[in-house]
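REQUEST FORM: STRUCTURE PREDICTION
Request ID: SP-0412
Submitted by: Lab K.M.
Chain count: 1
Length (residues): 261
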Amino acid sequence: MSHSKTDSGKRPVKIRPPSPKTTPRPTAGRSLSCEPPTKSIIQRRTQSLPSPSERRRLSHRASVRFVDSLGLDLESVKVFKSGEDPFVPEHVLFRLLTSAELASSKGMEISLPYLKPMFSVQPGDCSNFTERLRCQQVCLERVLCYEPGIIGIVQVVNLAFEKEVSVRYSFTNWKSCSETKAYWVASKSISNGPCCDTFRFHLPVPPYILHPGAVLEFAICYKVMGMQFWDNNGGQNYKLTCQSYNLPVPKECEDSVIHFI
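STATUS: Completed
RESULT:
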C-alpha cells in the first residue's frame, strides 16, 4: 500500500520539445552545401513553352523553298541577260516538241541525229587510192557510221612486222583532242599495188556531242621503223558533220513513245 501511494504522489516531468534546426548562414563567396542549386520544374517549362499569342503568330508564318524537278534544293540561281540563250538539253527539247505535236493533233516525228562524212566518195573507191597508198604509206579506205560512233578501215604498206596505227580526233576544232589505237585485222595484196596490212579503229561519239552542226575531225598516224607517216586527207583532215533526219511515228505507237520517254 505504501508503494502505491509513493507512485501516485510523483509529479509529471515536462518534456522539452526539440529546438528548430537553424540553417547556417553561407559565408561570403563560399557555399557550405555540396548539392547543386535546385530550380523549379514549372519555372523551366514556362520558359520553354511559347505563349498562346506567340503560338498563333508562329502558326501563321509561311515558308518558301525553291527545289528542282527531283525535289532537291537549288544550289545556285543564274539570271540570263537579254540575248543570252540558256542551254536546253536535247531530251528536254524532245519532250517539249513531242507535247507540242500531240497538242496540235499533227503527226508526231522524232528527230534523230547522225554523223555524215563531208566527202562524197569513200577513199577506197577513188581511182587514185593505190597511188596515194604508195606515196604516203597509209590511207583511210572506208568509214562506217552508226549510232554509238564510227568505224574506220585503214590500209598501210607492210614495211616491217612491228608497226602501230593510231587515230587522232577532235570534236572542238582541235582546241582539244584525243587518240585511239587501231587494231590489226588481216594482210592483203592490192592489185597492182604493194603488200598491205588492214587495220580497224572505232571512235566513240558521246550523245551530248550529237547536236546539229557538230563536226568530228580525225587523221591517221602510221609508226614503223622509227618513222611516222600521216594520212590527213591532203592537209584538210577527214571530217564528219552531225545532221538530223525526221522519223515519222505511226499513230498507234505515239502512246508507247510517250510512255517510253
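NOTES: The radius of gyration is 46 Å.
Reviewed by: T.R.
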